[in-house]
Each structure stands twice: as C-alpha cells, then as structure tokens.
Design a protein that fits this description.
The chain has a single domain, classed as Beta Barrel (Lipocalin). It has about 170 residues and is mainly beta. Strands 4-3-2-1-10-9-8-7-6-5 form a 10-stranded antiparallel β-sheet, with no helix packed on it. It has no helices and 10 strands.
Amino acid sequence: MGGGGMHGGGRGSAGQSGGQATGGSISHGSPAPLKLDLDFYQIGEIADQLTVEHRDPAITIKPSEKGDGSALPVLSYMADGKSHETPMADGGSVKSKTSWQGVRLVTKSTEKSEFGSMEIIEERSLSDDGNTLIVSVTYKGNASHWTEQAVYRRAKAVISPGTTAQ
C-alpha cells in the first residue's frame, strides 16, 4: 500500500493484480472523489483523497498527494483471474491476486524483500449508498501481525449558481 499504506511497488501499483469480478462493484454513482475521514484514519502512508475508476475488468485507484506534497502511485487492479508479480525497487517482488468476495474487493499479496516475506490482505468495501469506502489492510510478517483501516466519504458535489443538481 516496507509496511504501511499504499507505497511504490506494492500490491499492484505498477503491475496489476487480478481476480474475478463475480461480486459487487467498487464504483457507485457519480465519479466524485472520496475524501479521507480523519476520525477513522489509521493507515500511515495514505492519501487525503482517492478517485476510483471501475471499468470491468480494470479498477484504478488514483490517490491525491499526501499532505507533505509527495506523490503516491496509482494502483491498478485487473479482474482477470490471474496472479501478477511486480518487481520492487529494492530487488524484491510482490505477487498479488484480486477477487470479489461478495461486495468486498479483496487483494491478497505476498511481498518478498531483503527483509523477509510479508502477506498483505487489502479489503475495500463501498456502502450501499455509494458514499463511504472502507479500506482495511492486514499485514502478516514473520514476527508481526497488524491491521490498519481508513474510511473515505464521497465529496459533496459543488453546484454553481444557476444550475440544478441531477
């Protein structure tokens, strides 16, 4: 999303993660971005805002810049039922597979680096009204195990004077 949030080389960021689109859909309603709800913020390296695009079989998550101005990588996932391997800058690699489990989009990854191996499970679910995205990331390493969570709420559409909402 080293451990924590969405970072370069991990979990489908440059390559693509795969799975089958047999369940729900992460896109819902208008394409308004989802903003991080700071009351539920736990993930260390995550964007203030996400834009999610879902055009089966491709799912693209575009994070905004972090508060310090540093850019975050675009995350690309493919619902094609295949495992994908992405090389990392440190010479390690990430193997990942994405699938729908009911209405949850689940990515299971194994990251191998000079520091060892870590299993990462990302779960994304969208509320029934399409206005809340919950991202849960669980890390399972040789000597550690933890889960982080972030909640995003859809930004309100800005309506200019003289226009009507549709």
